[in-house]
Amino acid sequence: MLFHSEELKKRTIRFNDQEGVILYIESLTDTNLIRREVLQPLIRQQEGDLEETLLSVDIQKERNLANAVEAVVAGESVLILDGNREFFVLSTAVVHKRNLSEPENESVIRGPHNGFVEQLTVNLYSIRKRIESPHLTVRFIEVGRVTKTKIAIVYMRDLTNPDLVEEVERRIQSVSSDAVLSPGFIQEFTEDNPYSPFPQHLNTERPDRTVSNLMEGRVALLAEEDPTALIVPVTLYAFYQAPDDYNSRWLIGSFIRVLRFMSFMITTHLPALYIATISFHPEILPIELIFTIKDTLEQVPFPPLLEAMLMELIFELLREAGVRLPSRVGQTIGIVGGLVIGEAIVQAGLVSYTMIIVVALTAISSFLVPSHEMSSATRLLRFPLMFAAATFGYIGISFGLMIIFIHLCKLKSFGTPYLAPLAPLRLKDMKDAFLRAPIWKMNQRPHDSHPQRMKQEAYSRGWKHSDPGTE
Predict the structure, then answer these.
(1) Separation between Cα atoms, residue 448 and residue 161, nearest integer Å
(2) Is the pTM of this model over 0.90?
(3) Does residue 339 register a pLDDT over 80?
(4) CA angle, 72 as apex, 66 and 75 as ends, to 5°?
(5) What is the distance of C-alpha 314 from the center of its chain?
(6) Range with the lowest mean pLDDT among 31-35, 40-44, 317-321?
(7) Model pLDDT for residues 162-206, shown as the tens digit of each residue
(8) 3-class DSSP state for residue 182?
(9) Is the CB of residue 236 less than 8 Å from the CB of residue 421?
(10) How many helices (H) and strands (E) does the chain have?
């Protein structure tokens, strides 16, 4: 069952005039211990009692081959000698000791607080410790003629569609470049539509999030010297899902997810709606609000579009400065800079108070997106919508939204529709799209990745949940 995974290593030996083989998984086993305490003693003393020869290693005799698979998946190594009905399980599991370091971009309130590191072996170890299954398969591909970067393709052999795995391998093997330095290179080389502002790979530095996607039949790509995993295929809704959704109860998780989708609408639409309303459609506002806004605009010499562009530019400069500076200094620059510049620019009569409120609310909404790439895409989309609103008002916004949604309907991620399960509509998969249904209700895997098995166990043994009022 394990021969599909390239992590399975084999070392041939000879002991008591018998040919033998040692089998182990590279990321789960202490290879130095095997070489020092197993291979070297067997080479020095090629006959005798095996247990006396390997005094430094715990040895257990087994006859059931199913136990051999479980032992290898658990990190042990298996020694098989030709002609013996028994095989030997050697205690050689590795334990990677490292400080807990949660990814700064994907912090959670409740749940595991560890992330991937720059060592590919440690990252594969983190995944395998969560999925102790022989069906977890790893394949390695080297890309980059000069850099020869090692890429690991990780998937569940009994779940993932073989056509998807074949397509992923084909796209990676077709990369022709001198240097492939990070998964970001792989992302651009393998996207269905590289000119789209929307990301078509899900970036994550969390092992638990990677494992949850693997269990849905998706494929994960990891690279040496990079703590990021790429998940394919993905849909738009995957970028608005976070581990906290599943670590909290379903009502709380659904409420927070609705807030995130509202933030998408606010980030992309609010500045454009304000510009269109002030420039073309002030009559839709209550008369009291019109007088309030009019008072703030009397001293501003610029049209609403230039107001918005100026404030958005200032905010992006503050955001970038806060990211590049050390964390403590960056927070100070963001808060103090925003307050000082905002107050000064209003006192100078360059921007109205209303515009400050609109831009601030837009900025706050952009931070609600769990994915940094999707957050950047939504921030980028608001600029063409602002120009459309300043030119044609609400009609311009309508045409802009039509173009965006047409693009989303045509966009695909490794052949999977980007708006699935909404377009094409599949009601069974809507349990984990805009809202999160209870875990015991999600007894089917999403159809968008075309897994080999759709059914999954999702109830407590001994009793099943039922709807209120039913027996």
Answers:
(1) 11
(2) no
(3) no
(4) 145
(5) 30
(6) 317-321
(7) 999 999 999 999 988 888 877 888 899 999 998 999 999 999 999
(8) coil
(9) no
(10) 16, 12
Contact 131, 215 (CB under 8 A): yes
Task: For 274-312, write each residue's pLDDT tens digit.
Answer: 999 998 988 888 888 888 888 778 778 888 899 889 888
For the residues 338-363, what does the mean pLDDT come to? 82
Which residue shows structure tokens 């008369």?
A: 287
Assess whether pLDDT exceeds 50 at residue 33: yes
- Note every long-range contact of 283-292, with CB atoms under 8 Å and residues 24 or more positions apart, other chains counting: none
**pLDDT exceeds cutoff 80 at 56:** no
Place of tokens 């939204």: 401
Identify any residues that bridge with 220 across adjacent strands, giving them in sequence order: 154, 231
d(CA 117, CA 125): 11
**In this structure, are residues 308 and 271 in contact, taking their beta carbons and an 8 Å threshold?**
yes
DSSP lists the bridge partners of residue 15 as 18
Residue 332 has pLDDT above 90, yes or no: no
251, with CB counted inside 10 A (0-12, 13-18, 19+), is: exposed
Q: How many CB atoms lie within 10 A of CB 291?
A: 10
CB 143 within 8 A of CB 149: yes
pLDDT value for 1: 63
DSSP code per residue over 192-230 = S-TT-SS-SSEEE--HHHHHHHHTTT-EEEEETT---EE
**Is 456's pLDDT higher than 80?**
no
Please give the helix or strand (H or E) that residue 251 lies within, else none: helix 250-279
At CB < 8 A and 24+ separation, what contacts does 248-257 make?
A: 248/110, 250/436, 250/437, 250/438, 250/439, 253/436, 254/435, 254/436, 257/434, 257/435, 257/436
Q: Measure the CA–CA gap between 382 and 311, rounded to whole angstroms.
A: 13
- Say if residues 231 and 218 touch (Cβ distance below 8 Å): yes
Between 320 and 26, residue with greater pLDDT: 26
Is 5 in a helix, a strand, or coil? coil
Total count of residues recorded for the chain? 471
**Percentage of residues of the chain with pLDDT beyond 70:** 92
The pairing of strands 202-204 and 149-156 is unpaired
Smallest CA-to-CA distance from 281 within 400, 401, 393 is with 393
Is residue 48 classed exposed, middle or buried when 0-12, 13-18 and 19+ CB atoms within 10 A define those classes?
Answer: exposed
Long-range contacts, stretch 38-42, CB < 8 angstroms, 24+ apart: 38/77, 38/79, 38/90, 38/92, 39/11, 39/13, 42/13, 42/15
